[in-house]
Write a structure and sequence with these properties.
about 200 residues; mainly alpha; about 80% helix
């Protein structure tokens, strides 16, 4: 356990909590946390995860701009995605994981290239969903984080494994909070139409 891992742990917990509260600053905190984990994963040869962190920085910037575009007149509300978006997302996640897995298994000394790549690909899908405020993003994070816990324990990244366990709890809370906000927004919309 290094000082770098401890700092990344603290920033990640803070970032996920801020996301669940729908505070836009979450994206900036997440950028710092992601950068630290890029270094950590490279050091333990989880190359797909290290590369993923670089892409995550881009996704965090996208999330910042996506949430920043919302205005009082046109707010970005949490909501459920259409089934077509879900289907396309799953196909993209699988294809991305297989492509990355082939690359990392063939051309690098990456540890657990197929699992790491599939998790990386679906993490990007979940990040995109979060940037769009799809409530399903939290369910995806619960599944991914549970698998990440096992992978990081296998790599002796015990604090990181514990962090991802906390992520599961935070994701469950975020899921609950976004659903409650969605229900409240729907109720307010129905009342405004009725009044």
């Amino acid at each position: 356990m290094s000082h770098l891992e401890i700092a990344a742990f603290i920033l990640n917990v803070l970032g996920v909590w801020l996301t669940s509260k729908q505070y836009r600053i979450c994206w900036l905190v997440n950028i710092a946390a992601v950068f630290l984990y890029m270094i950590i994963f490279y050091q333990v040869h989880l190359l797909a995860d290290a590369a993923l962190q670089g892409v995550f920085i881009i996704m965090q910037i996208y999330g910042w701009f996506s949430w920043s575009k919302a205005t009082a007149a046109e707010p970005l509300h949490a909501g459920y995605m259409h089934k077509a978006v879900l289907g396309r997302s799953m196909v993209i996640g699988i294809a991305g994981g297989l492509f990355l897995g082939m690359l990392f298994a063939t051309y690098t000394h990456a540890s657990l290239p197929w699992l790491d790549s599939m998790l990386a690909s679906f993490s990007l899908v979940a990040s995109y969903w979060a940037a769009k405020k799809y409530i399903e993003s939290w369910a995806m994070w619960c599944v991914l984080d549970a698998i990440y816990v096992l992978m990081y324990l296998h790599k002796s990244l015990n604090l990181t494994a514990f962090l991802y366990f906390i992520f599961i709890l935070l994701a469950l809370n975020g899921w609950r909070m976004w659903r409650m906000k969605w229900k409240a927004d729907r109720q307010a919309e129905i009342q405004s139409l009725g009044g």
